[in-house]
Structure formats: structure tokens, C-alpha cells
């Protein structure tokens, strides 16, 4: 894999930057044979060396990706090592990430969709654990979206870890790290696969509470971790924890959703649910089946927002036309009872300028900026 040819021989790299990391850059590229979009993670060897990344660590990430084959995990297509760079060719995801969705939808996210997303998250985790892999950085920002599916990405902290074994390596994102990880320097004997489930539970809490993290609080106008609540696994299931916007009113998260979240965010690692157990949860399965999950990518969402605004502006234009027609009918009615000495005046009514940017209306696009509707008004 990646030995016989260079990355440029197989892929045309476009000047579209998808991301920037500490060791390199992710670019969009096109497969020269299939014309399929891919993402190329290009690692600068010298830069990564000076920042402390060992070649073995980069190879570990590649080996972990090669071991995975699941619809909710970003696919590795190929990798190439050249004199100055290592290029990892990955599945291209054009729908943003789950963190984007949380910010975009907030309280409007339906509980059924939150359940469906949680199911996909835990399906990816369960696959990793079956391959004796611990991800160690589960969080909304590491789940990309492609064709309506969540795709777990960024395996920089992932490691091979046999079931039942523990590690004491201090890595991860603090806000999503389990108590046994935070306590490594205070007597913790290490951690295992269950830290991924803890992080997934934090994500579920965010999905059913408008994006609010369970253990982040404001202190002196800054966001900080509430370590007391984190160590105790205390979740706020009061009035502030609200689900999606349904029928114009906020609905509280169901008892079943709260129960699953609490069992995932259990401070006792031995009592915490496994990913496989989460997937068997009745609420998760029932709610997921109810969800008509269709996750649009960000560009599609942008078009949807545009057309919603366009519809509002069209409604204004239609009201203008209706008012003008009513005035015309009123004037004609008055004139019928008077003499025939009238003057006909044509008054142009300009539709909103946005009509000229409508992507689906052929009449608007052909008419250009001078698109007008003439209304014959009869004046005495």
C-alpha cells in the first residue's frame, strides 16, 4: 500500500484545504481513475519530528484505520510515504461534523434524531472494541457526516488495547475524559475501553440538551470543567435539560433517554455500560426506528435556508400583487358608473431583488434585474 507510486500519480490534489493539524494539512483531492473525491491528510515528516511525533505513532494510526471496516468509521483508501511527507488517503466527508450540527440545530434537534446519532456513535465504538481498539477521543467534533451517516475520524489518540486490559497513557480531550483518566496522577490504576462509552454519554447529553455539555460551567466569564460533578457523574436532568422543539413547544428529554445517558456516564467504570449493551437499549432502538434520519450536508442546509428566506420574500410580493389587483378592481367598479373619459397608466411593480437569485425559477433567471410585472391601473 503506497509503495509503488506517489500520491500525485493516483490523485489530483485540489487547492481546497479541509483542515489543519499540528503535523500537517488535510486537502481535498480527486481519484484520477474514478473521479471520486477523497481527503488527503498530508503529514510533514520534519515538522512532526520536531513536535515529538514518532514515525511509529503515525504508522499506528494507519494500522488502526486498516483494521476497521464499518459504515460509521472513516475509510482508509491508501497511504504513501515519500522523502518529505506521508500522505494518508481517506474517505471524503462533505457534510461537516456533529459539532456543526449541534450548533446549527440546537434545541430544534428531535430526540429521535439524537437517538439515531447515538446509535451510530456507539456502533462505531463497538466495532473498534471488537478489534481491540480504544479511540480515546470520542467527541462531536470527531464525527464527520457523509451521505447522511456519521463517520468517526481522527485516530491520533487511538491505540490497540485488549479487552480487560488497562493503560495509563494520559491522552484525550479533558471535557470528554472519564474520571479514571483525570485521576491518573492521583492513584488511578488506569483505564480501558469504557472511557469511549463515557465520552459517548457526554455527547448524548449534549444531543438532548441543545448542545449543553454536562460538566462545563461558567466561572469568571470563562468555561471550565466542574470536576466535582464530573467525578460524581452528576447530570442535570432538571427543567434546563430540554429536548427538541416539537409542535412549537420545548419537550423535556424522556425518562428512558435520561436513564441511558446516566448509565453511560457512570463514574464507576466497572458498572458503566459497554458499547454493545448501549446498542441493546430499548429506548435507543425504538427512538432510532422512529427517526426518519436524513442528515443534510452543510451546503444543502445552506440552500434550504436560502429558499426559506425566498419563500418569505415571495409571500410579500404576492401580497403586493393581491393589493394592486384589489385596487384595480375597485377603480374599474367606480368607473363603470361614470363617463368613459379615462386614462390608462402602466405602473411597473418590481419583485424583490432576491428573485433574480432563485436557482429554480427559470423565468426569473431569464428576466434579469429588470424583471417586472405590469399592472394596468385605470384612473379617472
Automatic annotation (TrEMBL):
Highest rank taxon of the organism: Eukaryota
Q: Which Pfam families match?
A: Pkinase
Residues noted as binding ATP in the record, renumbered to the chain: 41
Q: Where is the Protein kinase domain?
A: 12-284
List the residue ranges forming a coiled coil, or say none. Answer: 307-334
Q: Name one GO molecular function term.
A: ATP binding
For this UniProt record, the keywords arranged alphabetically read as follows: ATP-binding, Coiled coil, Kinase, Nucleotide-binding, Serine/threonine-protein kinase, Transferase
Q: Which Gene3D superfamilies match?
A: Phosphorylase Kinase, domain 1, Transferase(Phosphotransferase) domain 1
Q: Does the keyword Hydrolase apply?
A: no
Q: Which family does it belong to?
A: Belongs to the protein kinase superfamily.
- Designated name of the protein: FhkD protein
**Gene source species:** Symbiodinium pilosum
Amino acid at each position: 500500500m503506497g509503495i509503488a507510486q506517489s500520491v500525485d500519480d493516483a490523485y489530483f490534489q485540489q487547492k481546497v484545504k479541509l483542515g489543519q493539524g499540528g503535523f500537517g494539512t488535510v486537502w481535498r483531492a480527486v481519484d484520477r481513475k474514478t473521479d471520486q473525491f477523497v481527503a488527503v491528510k498530508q503529514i510533514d515528516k520534519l515538522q512532526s519530528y520536531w513536535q515529538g511525533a514518532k514515525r511509529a505513532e503515525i504508522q499506528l494510526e494507519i494500522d488502526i484505520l486498516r483494521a476497521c471496516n464499518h459504515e460509521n468509521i472513516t475509510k482508509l483508501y491508501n497511504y504513501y510515504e515519500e522523502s518529505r511527507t506521508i500522505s494518508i488517503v481517506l474517505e471524503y466527508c462533505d457534510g461537516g461534523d456533529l459539532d456543526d450540527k449541534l450548533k446549527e440545530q440546537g434545541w430544534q434537534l428531535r430526540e429521535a434524531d439524537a437517538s439515531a446519532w447515538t446509535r451510530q456513535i456507539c456502533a462505531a465504538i463497538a466495532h473498534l472494541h471488537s478489534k481491540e481498539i480504544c479511540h480515546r477521543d470520542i467527541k462531536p467534533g470527531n464525527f464527520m457526516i457523509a451521505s447522511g451517516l456519521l463517520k468517526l475520524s481522527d485516530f491520533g489518540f487511538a491505540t490497540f488495547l485488549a479487552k480487560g486490559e488497562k493503560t495509563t497513557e494520559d491522552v484525550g480531550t479533558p471535557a470528554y475524559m472519564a474520571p479514571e483518566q483525570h485521576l491518573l496522577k492521583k492513584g488511578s490504576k488506569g483505564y480501558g475501553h469504557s472511557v469511549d462509552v463515557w465520552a459517548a454519554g457526554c455527547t448524548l447529553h449534549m444531543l438532548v440538551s441543545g448542545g449543553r455539555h454536562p460538566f462545563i460551567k461558567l466561572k469568571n466569564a470563562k468555561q471550565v470543567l466542574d470536576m466535582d460533578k464530573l467525578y460524581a457523574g452528576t447530570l442535570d436532568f432538571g427543567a434546563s435539560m430540554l429536548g427538541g422543539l416539537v409542535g412549537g413547544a420545548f419537550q423535556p428529554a424522556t425518562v428512558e433517554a435520561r436513564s441511558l445517558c446516566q448509565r453511560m456516564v457512570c463514574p464507576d467504570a466497572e458498572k458503566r455500560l459497554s458499547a454493545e449493551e448501549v446498542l441493546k437499549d430499548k429506548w435507543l432502538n425504538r427512538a432510532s426506528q422512529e427517526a426518519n434520519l436524513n442528515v443534510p450536508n452543510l451546503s444543502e442546509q445552506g440552500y434550504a435556508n436560502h429558499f426559506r428566506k425566498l419563500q418569505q420574500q415571495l409571500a410579500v410580493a404576492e401580497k403586493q400583487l393581491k393589493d394592486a389587483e384589489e385596487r384595480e378592481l375597485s377603480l374599474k367598479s367606480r368607473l363603470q358608473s361614470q363617463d368613459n373619459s379615462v386614462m390608462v397608466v402602466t405602473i411597473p411593480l418590481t419583485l424583490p431583488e432576491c428573485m433574480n437569485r432563485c436557482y429554480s425559477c427559470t423565468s426569473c433567471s431569464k428576466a434579469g434585474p429588470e424583471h417586472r410585472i405590469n399592472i394596468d391601473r385605470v384612473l379617472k
